[in-house]
Task: inverse folding
């Protein structure tokens, strides 16, 4: 499993770095444990989850935001109580920035870019790969202005890219990436 922030979708990378930095500055000794996963890696992890050997929930293959580069997992050091408090604080911070935190569904190490189309992925008949994403324009301070600087879809102008894939990462369209 990859743990490089560079394997995440580019719009998520600076915010993941910012959270990692905030955790480090708080003395939490953060460590990124998982970023983008292959289908094979997701399958192995999901099997371990079904066997009861993985302490955190795992999405079925083809349905994980990790497989598309929209999520990362971050652990911190400490006693179980320190880890709970630290991850709760980081999760709260992530949510105030507009991100999706896994602590809301019993996965406190999971941090996700908003808008990943979980329902669309679950109902897709294309091996889980979907041509749909609704990236939230409110991610982090700056709202649409921040994302408008990356994607013309948020600038209010005409874009060649679909509204549900403003950065072109799911449809693999480089012209959408600003």
Result:
């Amino acid at each position: 499993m990859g743990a490089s922030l560079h394997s995440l979708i580019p719009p998520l990378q600076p915010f993941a770095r910012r959270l990692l930095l905030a955790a480090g500055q708080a003395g939490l000794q953060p460590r990124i444990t998982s970023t983008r996963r292959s289908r094979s890696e997701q399958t192995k992890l999901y099997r371990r989850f079904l066997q009861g050997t993985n302490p955190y929930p795992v999405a079925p293959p083809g349905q994980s935001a990790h497989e598309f580069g929209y999520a990362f997992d971050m652990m911190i050091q400490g006693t179980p109580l320190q880890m709970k408090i630290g991850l709760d604080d980081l999760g709260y911070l992530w949510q105030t920035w507009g991100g999706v935190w896994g602590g809301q569904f019993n996965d406190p190490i999971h941090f996700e870019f908003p808008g990943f189309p979980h329902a669309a992925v679950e109902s897709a008949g294309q091996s889980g790969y979907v041509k749909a994403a609704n990236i939230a324009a409110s991610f982090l301070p700056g709202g649409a202005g921040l994302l408008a600087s990356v994607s013309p879809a948020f600038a209010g102008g005409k874009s060649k890219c679909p509204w549900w894939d403003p950065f072109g990462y799911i449809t693999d369209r480089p012209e959408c990436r600003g």
Q: What stands out?
A: The chain has a mean pLDDT of 77. The first helix runs from residue 13 to 25.
